[in-house]
Write a structure and sequence with these properties.
401 residues; alpha/beta; 5-stranded parallel sheet; 9 helices; 25 strands; 27% helix
């Protein structure tokens, strides 16, 4: 039997750990149940941190962890999925192709930044969506030191006032001063189409966020969008022109395109609809998890968000349940009633909220300390030691907050 997992992000990593854990508990050998993880590199990109400086350091190796739990790593890009034949076609860096059959499949392909067809966005927009994107932005910021201090050199426009946009924007003043000198006075502007900043976080934490933006000197434009970009700046939908040599796009994400090859229903974000065990409805043998799946967290109508917090726990349940079906043991319905957010606010600290109503529990330096612990400890892979790695993936205990 073979269980194939596509993706080495948070959901894919925990799917592999959890499946291996159940296999070990059931006393089944790796020869009887092979668990294979397919990804371009055996590396976890710590995506929630890509708004920070030195993004090239924000990865964690997975190969030794996978070896310690007897998970086979298959290097390459999954290009096609044939759910009738139960075969995945993989392309390698060397240009060759190979096929991998499966008895159960876990789609953990994550999400991608949504880039609309706005004039100039593809040519002049930066992002912190992927490691390559974040590295390109970092190099561009360092290149500003070689340019004259005029025509918007010290101005950064962040398109999108959600979680990612706010973290990117509030980090920028310190990043620019580190590059251009401590006397530099950066101008950072967040552009948000909705009528308020942080539209998805609600009214609770918004005053804290707005106060932090004022302290940092970050400007906002709400109720407007970006109409076009060029090498010198942006034009907004209300006609305002902002001279800026750096524009960061942070306005929305969609499930990765590979999910479209699964013949099943999807939501507006491209996420596959799944049942409580994270099975893709109407497609036998296929599970989806993380940003690739729309899954109910509870019986109160809350659904998992496209976030690391949900992806890790969903991954653990998906891997466990895919393995459980093959091993003939009961599955565990996914549930995640606890929900917290910890939004980085740069030099102004952070804000920590609990519950779907986003009740503020910590602000400032206290919340910042928690954010740093989350970013540098909690979300990293377990040690490459078999017992510890397997123990870390109990679905009922992953991401308990």
């Amino acid at each position: 039997m073979r269980l194939v997992i596509i993706g080495a992000g948070f959901a894919g990593m925990y799917a592999a750990l959890s499946a291996a854990r159940l296999r070990d508990i059931q006393g089944v050998s790796p020869e009887e149940l092979e668990i294979a993880l397919v990804a371009p590199e055996p590396t976890l990109v710590v995506r929630p941190r890509l708004y920070e400086a030195k993004p090239e350091t924000l990865t964690a190796p997975l190969l030794e962890v996978l070896k310690s739990i007897d998970v086979v790593y298959v290097q390459g890009n999954a290009e096609t999925i044939d759910t009738k034949s139960r075969v995945v076609q993989i392309s390698t860096a060397g240009g060759t192709r190979k096929t991998l059959s499966y008895d159960r499949l876990v789609v953990a392909t994550g999400s991608r930044l949504f880039r609309p067809n706005i004039p100039g966005l593809a040519e002049h927009g930066f992002s912190v969506d992927s490691l390559d994107d974040a590295v390109a932005l970092d190099r561009h910021l360092h290149s500003l030191a070689d340019r004259p201090a005029r025509n918007g050199r010290d101005t950064i426009v962040v398109a999108g006032g959600g979680f990612t946009g706010i973290e990117a924007a509030t980090e920028m003043p310190a990043r620019l001063r580190a590059i251009l000198g401590k006397d530099t006075r950066p101008r950072v502007i967040i552009v948000e189409r909705n009528g308020a900043i942080a539209p998805d976080m609600g009214a609770g934490p918004r005053p804290v966020i707005e106060d932090a933006l004022r302290k940092l000197g970050v400007e906002t434009r709400v109720g407007v969008g970006v109409s076009s970009l060029d090498e010198a700046g942006v034009t907004l939908s209300n006609g305002e022109r902002i001279e800026a040599e750096t524009v960061v796009w942070a306005a929305g994400i969609r499930a990765a395109p590979l999910t479209q090859q699964i013949p099943a229903e999807r939501d507006n974000s491209g996420r596959l609809l799944v049942d409580r065990d994270l099975r893709v409805t109407s497609v036998p043998g296929v599970f989806a998890t993380g940003d690739a799946a729309k899954a109910a967290c509870d019986d109160a109508g809350n659904f998992a968000l496209m976030s690391c917090q949900h992806a890790t726990r969903m991954g653990a349940f998906a891997g466990n349940n895919a393995a459980a079906e093959l091993l003939g043991v009961p599955t565990k319905p996914y549930h995640q009633k606890a929900y917290v957010t910890c939004l980085d606010l740069g030099e102004a600290g952070a804000v920590f909220t609990r519950g779907w109503e986003r009740k503020v529990e910590m602000v400032g330096d206290v919340a910042k300390k928690t954010k740093q612990e989350i970013n540098t400890v909690w979300i990293y892979p377990p040690q490459a030691e078999r017992a510890a790695a397997l123990a870390s993936a109990d679905p009922e205990r992953v991401t308990e907050v």
